[in-house]
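Box 3.1 A note on notation
Throughout this textbook, protein chains are presented in two layers. The first layer is the amino acid sequence; the second is a token string describing backbone geometry. Keep the layers aligned when reading.
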Amino acid sequence: MPQLTAITTIQATLELVTGLRIGAGDSEMHIGGVDNTVIKHPHTQSPYIPGSSLKGKMRSLLEWRSGAVKEQALGWKDYEAAGGSQQAEVKRILQLFGISGDAKLGVEQMGAMGPTRVSFWDCSLNPEWEKQIREDNFALTEVKSENRINRISGVAEHPRQTERVPAGAQFDFRLSVKRLAGDGDDLLNTVLQGLKLLELDSVGGSGSRGYGKVRFVGLTIDQLICQARFDAIQPFKGLSMSNPVLVQKIYQAAQALPDAQATEALDFIYFLRSRQELTEHRDLQAAQQPAMNRVWDNDADEAWNHV
């Protein structure tokens, strides 16, 4: 089995852009109470985000992105059935999130995947944010009334009350990624792409109705500020790259470099990506120019040039 060589820690402030609801699973009904409550710490009654909710949603989004998604979480058989770049992506997902114990893999197969790399923490409310809210006598949650509209009569039916953590709430986010001998930076990059997918989608329930939109602020990797790197991530860009041999050559060449020069090489790759994006932006402007000329270059508009 490969040797554990490092554990990378990613930390950030998880800020709610819209109200968040992760259900508490109440076992009893209360007359006049809220129908759907959020999960809270049993001692402090402060809402929190379970690490399992973040892990499950992130894995689901990455599996959908891979194109190999199934009703159940991907496993070894799905890895064997995949091919090319899809197989490489499925392998990264399995390395990060693990394989069910029911798979009964052999020693060679277990060695190829290794142990689960990623570990999520439960996200508690940021202490400073929570202290300020309590001092201002604000509530830590809100109750949103909802109902269903009868399409024929237009009458509101089946009213219900849903508890949410309000927009603006801040949680302390943390996860760790184990690095084993032979692991490349592609696993850490996949984790960052998964976090970006969470921003683009949602966390918790009722995401299609606007709940659970989040953003990661002040992101650090091993206490180094990496927010700009995270903001630049485009999780769907480059998926069409179909030359794994070229990718492997670049990876092997980078492995032979000292850390300082490898960092310079990575910075240069970011520069090339930024230049490509700038070129695409200029191409878009050039394509729009003829249409804009018809809007601005006319006799009626010419009079305004002399005002």
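Residues 4-239 form one domain. The mean pLDDT is 84.
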